[in-house]
Amino acid sequence: MSVRVVARIRPLLEKELDKDVIVRADAVEEGRPMTVVKIPNPKNESEEFSFAFNSVYEQTTTQEELFTAEVAPHIKALFQGLDVTIFAYGVTGTGKTHTMRGGLRLAERGVIPRLLSNVYRRGKKIGKDTNGETTVNVALSYYEIYNDKVFDLLEPPEKRTPSGLPLREKDGKTIVVGLSERSCEDLKDFERLYIEANNNRVTASTKLNAHSSRSHAILRVKVTQTTGDMVRESTASAIDLAGSEDNRRTENGKQRLIESAAINKSLFVLSQCIDAISRGDRRIPYRESKMTRILSLGQNNGITIMILNLAPMRSYHLDTLSSLNVSSRAKRIEVREIENEVVFKQPPRTNSGTAATAMKRQPLR
Ligand code: ADP
Ligand code: MG
């Protein structure tokens, strides 16, 4: 199991152009790739906090650049039988849905349609290269976890039971009982289903954002390769997580607070799992939330990519800081502080790569 944690800073929207930008990408030293996010200390603005990631994507990063760098390299592994899991994490309004789903225009398409497009292309190629001996089938499940309950997004809302779908253990794996799965022939087929399913997603308004998403939306793409009686199955999961904002500051009512408690718990467990995987721990606490349990996070052999979405404006200051704190793990890692020079003491290398590190930086003088 390997994990990458990367950050993506979104650009200012047209109506935000006059806003104060306080989040920026940086490199450890000149000429090196961007791996650091910098943000002022809200209690002392002359001081700056730095957070290190496996990679940091600036405001100008296009959908294609992000996909090419972070997802495309794993499609081969997916066809070799590894599971690939991609999370978008962050405060509401920072670009999670833009990153995962994106816009309708070709250039604006997000990770999910690009992933599917690549999967179909590779599937076709495999069929061709083997003279039709190997067939590739793509099937989708799409569900959301709202208030710790699982709802099938491929079914119309009328068919929902209030308690959601039950979970059951089978062969050491957690399955969602009654979750539908649809075979999708091609990209068009997928897009039709995906658009329909997205309309089924629960959204409720909060003061922060009228369409803030209060549920985790999980798309699972099952790739089945069949050659004679040999079957190879693997899954790509793309997860648009619920907003990680602190709801105590948005004057939410009781319903919002119940939602918040469920969201906070599951996001906390997720971050614990990501920590544990990145450290190479043997025990991953994936059983402690429904989302991580269903994904068997840490149990499967696979690749996990967590994308932390960030908005650069001052109005997000505290929420941004807290999401940076959650996704930059390994706070125990010491960082030497040297003026004008950022020096990382590397965390112990594991086969899962480098952990993200948080550190405090001396103010520049
Ligand atoms: P979230 O899902 O995290 O709440 P959204 O994806 O809805 O956030 O993004 C909030 C707004 O910012 C949307 O209008 C979206 O189109 C825009 N946006 C987000 N990321 C980008 C980006 N990289 N480039 C351009 N616009 C973006
Ligand atoms: Mg969203």
TrEMBL record:
Where found in the cell? Cytoplasm
Q: Which positions are annotated as binding ATP?
A: 90-97
Q: Where is the Kinesin motor domain?
A: 2-333
Coiled coil region boundaries: none
Q: Which family does it belong to?
A: Belongs to the TRAFAC class myosin-kinesin ATPase superfamily. Kinesin family.
The protein's name is P-loop containing nucleoside triphosphate hydrolase protein
Q: Which residues of the full protein are shown?
A: 1 to 365 of 738
